[in-house]
Protein 1
Amino acid sequence: MLLNSTRGFLWSDVETRTLLKIWGEQDIQTALDGNFRNSHVYRDVARRLAEMGFERTPEQCRVRIKSLKRQFVLAKEGNLRNNGQHHKICKFYDAMERILSSRSQIDPQELLDSGVVGDETMDGTEEEEEEADPPRDQYLEDTGECSYPQTQVKMEYPAVVIPVTVENSTTVKQTSNSHSAGSPSSSRPKRPKKRHAGLPLESMMERFLEQSAEAEQNFYHMEDQRLDAEDRRREAEHSRELHTLQVLGQMFSSIATRNPVPVATATTAVPLARNTTDPSAPTLAANHVTRGYWSHLPVGSPQSHAEWASFHSRQQSNPVIDRSFSIGSAAHRGMDDILPLVKNIVPPLISKKHKGQDGRIGIVGGCQEYTGAPYFAAITALKVGADLSHVFCTKDAATVIKSYSPELIVHPVLDSPNAVEEIEKWLPRLHSLVVGPGLGRDEMLLKNTKEVIEKSKSRDIPVVIDADGLWLVAQQPSVIQGYNKGILTPNYMEFTRLYEAMHHEPLDSSDHQRSAMELSVALGNVTIVLKGEEDLITDGNKVIWCQQKGSGRRCGGQGDLLSGALGVLAHWAYTSSANMNKSINPSVVAAFGACSLTRQCNTQAFHKYGRATVTSDMIQEISSAFKKLFDS
Ligand SMILES: NC(=O)C1=CN([C@@H]2O[C@H](COP(=O)(O)OP(=O)(O)OC[C@H]3O[C@@H](n4cnc5c(N)ncnc54)[C@H](OP(=O)(O)O)[C@@H]3O)[C@@H](O)[C@H]2O)[C@@H](O)CC1
Ligand SMILES: Nc1ncnc2c1ncn2[C@@H]1O[C@H](COP(=O)(O)OP(=O)(O)OP(=O)(O)O)[C@@H](O)[C@H]1O
């Protein structure tokens, strides 16, 4: 994982400091000291740098060190210490001084010369090849940095040789000549004539250093501006994407409100409120339900059972609604419309995150009889993208669940005398709770579970309830009633049980949409996910259908996979809800994502194993199903 970006050839300060720290290490210095062939040493430097998060080649490390040494000597020999100018010329002066002072004296002539130089040469032969190609800009190659705006400085740079003992320009010239006579670089083209030949060396030197520092400042300033502009461009792009999604959401709402409902006097979309005159009466319009679209009830919608009956019959005779939202074409369009919303809640995988940020999910369930269900839910949560998955189960079940997977954190507390306190300790660290897989129906376990749900509600944690958790809700609806982050995932059997517990009348099995909306409203608009041949999702205001292709294979545990996935997606959806259109319910988006994923896993596993497909095979498909649905 890279700690810092190493854009192009540029070295950031933090990267340079890390390089210096490595280069200054005792064993590196010893290996370099007097050793002509040192490519292996720079290979080691590059490797250690990579361990610190910065990817550079050994050659890049070598030229950077060489450049730093050159800057250091220029600053040192420019006698700029007293007026503090040395830091302008060599930002890392102090570090360099510390390292170099612990080594044998370095000949500054060597460091400034662009020819073969002590430990900065990566095996002599390579350096000779470099020298054989004179027309290239030696300064740029040596520093490994981008060109400065004031190239004039660079062009003059190699020509200025600064011998320690020289006192005037004539001597410099002689030194320079004598050097080039014997060096391999004598074949270089003639350098441009020095414009400052008449100036005393010291003032020329000072001027050069000032120009050089100024050029460097300019360069970094420009680079800062460029990066700022890039950040702004990226932000603008992101807001454009969000805006598009919001417009899409509004489109769904307005499509729904444009239905020609005869009694409607206004077409403004309003969220369905609970009936204020008769709290027990469900406020629904079943045929107002959309397949794959969000739907709001228009003002003037029925507010009681009697009104509903009349509304329902009008809707039945309304062909426009049937055509607009018929399954045939809307099925595909529904996926296209809602999947982008799910994709939008998936957090990006960026290196700045720490463990836990993408989700710490708790599963309450697992008893002597059922150890598979909590395992399926918990491992699914991890595979969908949560960072940590906790299982709170009975003592009996814990060892078994642990033995299935070392990835899970298993707490054998659910049947302990202080179960609620034990679990409550973890709640501040959890992002969502999945209650019910493999819970069983033991009185004491259900009582503990009920209290844990209450504590989670007070912490505003999304709570997904499945399996035996739904049995608990059927016995004591108040446990989840009115909690808007509550999501119930019944199969048909569980749904019937819930409906009949709430309405004290048999379920009308001919109209699932209406019944599901009624149940949601009766439970205070919790989100209901009625699983089946098609999955129906409603929060009492809207209904959407998930018609992702599945298979005919109905092995046990598929519902646990769904609830585990939903735990993670609910956390992601609520985390990104600030960026969502307000008419979109995060629970519904999360539910649609979890249903699509479960069904896609089923299809893929069935394709491989047919009738032999088991839930573990579906779990193996999570990665590729997720990519196919949400990463494309
Ligand atoms: N490997 C494990 O550890 C697993 C453990 N699990 C855990 O088991 C616990 C009990 O859960 P559960 O669903 O078996 O119990 P329950 O609600 O009494 O239903 C039982 C009866 O309801 C019926 N029925 C079911 N679906 C229906 C439908 N769609 N449509 C119509 N009818 C339907 C059906 O009746 P039948 O057809 O047999 O007459 C069935 O026999 C729970 O904690 C769960 O998490 C499971 O997750 C699986 C993997
Ligand atoms: N007839 C069907 N055709 C296609 N997919 C289905 C069908 N019935 C259920 N599913 C899918 O299977 C998944 C699990 O639903 P199921 O009804 O099996 O849950 P469950 O009974 O609670 O499961 P569990 O065995 O975990 O208790 C859901 O994603 C649902 O969409």
Protein 2
Amino acid sequence: MSSPLADEPVEPAGDDAEPLDGDECAEYLDELGDAWEVVDDHHLEASYEFPDFETALAFTNDVGELAEAEWHHPDISLSWGEVGVEMWSHEVGGLTEADFVMAARMDRLYADASE
Ligand SMILES: C[C@H](O)[C@H](O)[C@H]1CNC2=NC(N)=NC(=O)C2=N1
């Protein structure tokens, strides 16, 4: 079951937005799957596992399409059987709600790919 957070819009933070603090990050993190962790209260990191390279590549492409559609982009690493993701709001210099919504959308993509 993916998080209702995935149904939220991915909204760019305002020009004067401040990054989320540790407590706010912890609250949002509770709504994400086990793949995710908050690092240094600055960015999200996840590792998704796959049976082979082909399925990992397909997920990578799905995440890329999501990022382009929402204009909010992760760093993605692709290996045999694994996709690593790092996510933060570059223009804010830390985490915003948009990052957690994107992470929840990736959890939903992963759940769909694992069916
Ligand atoms: C230049 C471009 O509009 C910016 O880089 C956009 C696009 N993608 C982005 N992705 C992320 N993760 N953070 C941003 O601040 C961001 N801003």
Protein 3
Amino acid sequence: MSDLLERLSAVLESRKDADPDSSYVAKLYSKGLDTILKKIGEEATETVMAAKDGDNQKIVYETADLWFHTLVLLAHQGLKPQDVLDELDRRFGLSGLEEKAQRGE
Ligand SMILES: N=c1c2ncn([C@@H]3O[C@H](COP(=O)(O)OP(=O)(O)OP(=O)(O)O)[C@@H](O)[C@H]3O)c2ncn1[C@@H]1O[C@H](COP(=O)(O)O)[C@@H](O)[C@H]1O
């Protein structure tokens, strides 16, 4: 896999010092957590609608929007994409039931 997530994460980090009028991401940060969460909700809904329409091109487009806004959330919260990759890596190879058991469910 490419280092895209790392490069994008660095850009998102740099936008913490940027002028909200010059950057979409800086504007999201300036509006705060609730605005970022609202965007994630909207993009998730648009992804669901694309899938219900059976429009694969739109699924890719909307999923990119969704992933992008979750990356903005991670940066806002002081987290990195690597934190999520580490969690997926920890789960990799476990069955769904084993993963569930580790959560105590
Ligand atoms: N990958 C993205 C990216 N994907 C989606 N978007 C923006 O996310 C928004 C998606 O929201 P919608 O589809 O609802 O469109 P909209 O109506 O314009 O959204 P709103 O402005 O109303 O929130 C659009 O404004 C897109 O431009 C992105 N904006 C930025 N990036 C990356 O983030 C980097 C930093 O961006 P800036 O901070 O703008 O320089 C860029 O270089 C890109 O690599």
